[in-house]
Design goal:
There is one protein chain. 64% of the residues lie in helices and 11% in strands. The protein is built from ten helices and four strands.
């Protein structure tokens, strides 16, 4: 699974923060990029991988020891316990091994995660970060917009305060998301984040300059990385 610290160096973070600070000075909007490794746990998907691993192991056991297993299932004498123990062992080992493998191999777990669940997890985590981490600043200082990238889900969720959210169309949101996802695919996340912040500044500067702007004497918030 992709890790934020593998994609962004300290110099990259500093450059993104400089762009965000410049954007705040021009627009009176705190535009905060947030990069997280994953937005959800997906325990059910890991269990599904374990279940399939157990089933595959059982099928292989049946092919290798079909005669022994066959005699055990029909209850013939002379094979008491010979077939049952390997079956139980392979099911348990297969399930535990599969779930452990799924925690380490992200694409394997993704096979059992519906697209809508990835969307919901990314959106929910973005809102959690917005309200739990920045809501006090949102109420007291400049307008606030969080651009939340979830690396595992490969989703960008944008959450802004009510005044700004009402003015952002779906096309506007997509124009902010696009450079981040393109930068991620090109292994250039720094430029993607910078371009997204600049685009958000262009859209939100107009939205905030209507008499509802608030003074912002404090420094701009910085890029937040959540492992």
């Amino acid at each position: 699974m992709l890790k934020p610290d593998k994609l962004l160096t300290e110099a990259d973070v500093q450059q993104v923060n400089e762009v965000a600070s410049y954007a705040r000075a021009r627009s009176n909007v705190d535009i905060i990029p947030v990069v997280t490794g994953s937005s959800g746990k997906y325990d059910r998907a890991e269990d599904m991988v374990g279940l399939w691993a157990a089933a595959l192991g059982l099928a292989l056991l049946w092919l290798l020891f079909s005669r022994v297993v066959g005699r055990e299932t029909v209850g013939q004498t002379g094979t008491n316990g010979i077939g049952l123990i390997p079956i139980l062992a392979i099911v348990i080992i297969g399930f535990l091994g599969g779930t452990l493998l799924a925690t380490q191999i992200g694409w394997l777990r993704r096979l059992f995660i519906p697209t809508h669940q990835l969307d919901k997890a990314s959106e929910a985590h973005a809102r959690y970060v917005f309200y739990d981490c920045f809501s006090h600043r949102h109420q007291e200082q400049a307008h606030l917009c969080v651009i939340h990238l979830s690396l595992y889900e490969r989703r960008v969720a944008i959450v802004a305060d009510k005044h700004l959210q009402e003015k952002l169309t779906d096309a506007d949101l997509e124009s902010i998301r696009r450079p981040i996802l393109e930068g991620l695919s090109k292994q250039n996340l720094r430029d993607g984040l910078c371009d997204a912040v600049r685009r958000a500044e262009e859209l939100l500067a107009t939205s905030s300059a209507d008499g509802n702007s608030r003074p912002c004497p404090t420094p701009a918030m910085q890029l937040r990385i959540i492992q």
